Amino acid sequence: MLIRELTGADADEVRRLRKVAFGATSEEDPVRPGRRGLLAEVDGRPAAVLTITGFHQFFGGAPVPMGGIGGVAVDPSARGRGVASGLLDRTLVDLREHGQPLSVLYATVPALYRSRGWERAGVFEWIDFPIDRLPTGPAAATRPATEADLDALHACYVDLASTVNGLVDRSKPGVDVADVLTLDVVTVVPGHDGEVRGFLTAERNREGLRVFDLVGRDRDTQLGLLRALGSWAGLLDQVSLRVTDPAVPGLLTNQAIRYTVTTSAWLLRVVDLPAAVAARGWPAAAALRDAAVDLEVVDDHAPWHAGRQRLVVEDGAVRVEPGGTGAVRLHARALGPWFSGMQDTHALRRAGLLDGGGDAALLDRLAGAPGVPRLADFF
Predict the structure, then answer these.
(1) What value does the mean pLDDT of the chain take?
(2) Domain check: are 169 and 197 in the same one?
(3) Nearest-CA neighbor of 359 among 315, 299, 295, 314?
(4) Where is the N-acetyltransferase domain (predicted)?
(5) 100 with 271: CB under 8 angstroms?
């Protein structure tokens, strides 16, 4: 099996593989600025493909470089021959070489990705809102967004994203903010001196209104945007909202005890633990005394960070360095949900992903985060 970088000349083969795997394909170029890919050949014929999009994902308020893996497709004739596993092993090396210590994917075959160290670490959610559950009162004063608003709109989003573990920063070249202007509804709440106080993006289809982002810098702006959705009453019974800001559905609407939510889980892989820890924000560290926990990282597929490591908190900073006793054993699949704050060490121990006799409490004090880690982008 040969694994090589994807090129523009492979576009037709990529579409063929994805058409067979998923039943549909996109005309979008598989390779573009901010996106690269790998292709596996068996007997000289393309047999499997994946793409990697460059993102930065917020954890602890800091953007950590992350490779988003998508479009993994294997030709039926090549399945069961270790092609996908080999492609993922090469991907881990590629991610490290490109300075991406984290990787995220949406798994259609979780067992495959878990075998290579990815594990569930957050959610991607849509919630259906009956119109009568939206708050009533004066709607926000909005206007259609223009190209001149894009930088301010992006700044408004980043202000929110930096406070929600898991959201990406939507920076170029991985994401082109101008793409929002192709949507049916893009409205902004203007502020002073070109500032955007909030915005709403949505598409109308036969099923209803799909709201991609409802973001506000403050409570009044958020409530005003929610009330603006009430203008669809009579045309629609409900709207679907992608959860970008968890405060919007969780605290500002009148959801009843039962409601409809569609959840997709995303899996996180820590590719390079020392680099990931160095890039992450650790707000809790400032309040901790200098301390350390001795780890043994069990990771057959990323040997560069496997073995005995010490996680050290010193003067409010956190680092990982070689050495220690290896008292707390962390398996590769434990690293993602711990790093994101999705699971604490008690859950990881019960799942068999953390063992040993050492005291792991420092890990929980550092990574414990309010709320569920979230993504609001699909790739």
Answers:
(1) 94
(2) yes
(3) 295
(4) 1-137
(5) yes
Across 234-262, average pLDDT: 91
Peptide bond just before 173 cis, omega within 30 deg: yes
Residue 342 located in a structural domain? yes
| Same-domain status, 288 and 363 | yes
253: number of Cβ within 10 Å: 19
Give the CATH number, domain containing residue 95: 3.40.630.30
Report the pLDDT value the prediction gives residue 370, as an integer from 0 to 100. 64
Identify the three-state secondary structure at position 8.
Answer: helix
Is residue 369 pLDDT above 70, yes or no?
Answer: no
Residues 263, 375 contacting (CB under 8 angstroms): no
Phi/psi for 102 (5° steps) reads -125, 155
Closest by Cα among 364, 346, 366 to 354:
346
Nearest Cα residue to 229 out of 268, 256, 202: 202
CB 198 within 8 A of CB 220: no
How many other CB atoms sit within 10 Å of the CB of residue 295? 27
* Cα(209)–Cα(69) distance, integer angstroms: 28
DSSP code string of 227-274: HHHGGGBTTBSEEEEE-SSTHHHHHSS---SS-EEEEEEEEEEES-HH
Q: Which residue has the higher pLDDT, 192 or 27?
A: 192
For residues 113 and 88, is the Cβ–Cβ distance under 8 A?
A: yes
- pTM over 0.85? The answer is yes
Residues 137-148 pLDDT 10s: 888 999 999 999
DSSP letter at 157 equals H
Q: Which domain holds residue 353?
A: 270-367
Query: Does residue 366 contact residue 285 with C-beta atoms inside 8 Å?
Result: yes
Give domain status of residue 294, yes or no: yes
Side-chain-side CA neighbours of residue 284 (13 Å): 12
- Using CA of residue 111, residue 112, residue 115, residue 117, what is the dihedral sign? negative
CATH classification at residue 300: 3.30.1050.10
pLDDT computed for residue 371 by the predictor: 76
HSE at residue 305, side-chain half, CA atoms within 13 A, is: 26
d(CA 188, CA 214): 10
Together in a domain, 153 and 187: yes
Query: Where do runs of H (alpha helix) occur along 9-149?
Result: 11-22, 83-97, 110-114
Q: Give the length of the chain.
A: 379
**323: number of Cβ within 10 Å:** 13
Residue written as token pair 């898991």? 166
